[in-house]
């Protein structure tokens, strides 16, 4: 027999090697089966989780709609809920796969720190967006002046607020500076006051001027009678006087009434030979 001529110690070592290989293969098979089951479980949880997230987002949307929440706030809360639920699902799948949560959390914290340092301005804008949605200094369609920009609010995003200017330009304002800066909202009040000052020379007949202004104001149907329009001399300057009118109009009529009053007053003054002081220009010439 061939086995009879093989030394005993050699045969024993061969049997041990075969046994070690068998054990190694068994362990690989067991790990493969375990990993396969985990992958199957993770895939099932992923599919079910995606369906649950979709259902929850629809439920939240219907809930907010019943509460008549603004579209901008709804969009923001939907995005926030989606990110939160997706993160929970991701962590659940990581746990099912048996990955070390401690090591994973440390890696996630380091990545989060690096991303936070690189995106600190965006994080500030995100926080600003939250504050704008909570405080609500304006809403969609309002005309505001902020950060040196004047326009109607088109959208309030997570990072930027979009304005549309009167000459049809789209302006993106970061929410961070916007939430901490001064905001003038021209749309919160139903009525606005128009103040127009006319500078006239000394010697002008104030009573005649006031009568002309009163007639122009009375002939404009958009000017409100309450509060009553104001007409009076508001300043005595060096050689000139300032006559000011103050009238109230609906906020939506402000621009058109302002232009109309200026044009009608100019025409009436010209017709009655009332002019402002002559402007003298002196040019110094060096020899």
From TrEMBL:
The chain crosses the membrane at residues 32-53. Keywords: Cell membrane, Membrane, Transmembrane, Transmembrane helix. Residues 123-187 form the Mechanosensitive ion channel MscS domain. It holds the Pfam family MS_channel_2nd. GO terms for cellular component: plasma membrane. Its main location: membrane. Residues 194-274 form the Mechanosensitive ion channel MscS C-terminal domain. It is found in: Cell membrane. GO terms for molecular function: mechanosensitive monoatomic ion channel activity. It is a multi-pass membrane protein. Gene3D superfamilies: 1.10.287.1260, 2.30.30.60, 3.30.70.100. Belongs to the MscS (TC 1.A.23) family. This is Small-conductance mechanosensitive channel. The lineage of its organism: Bacteria, Pseudomonadati, Bacteroidota, Bacteroidia, Bacteroidales.
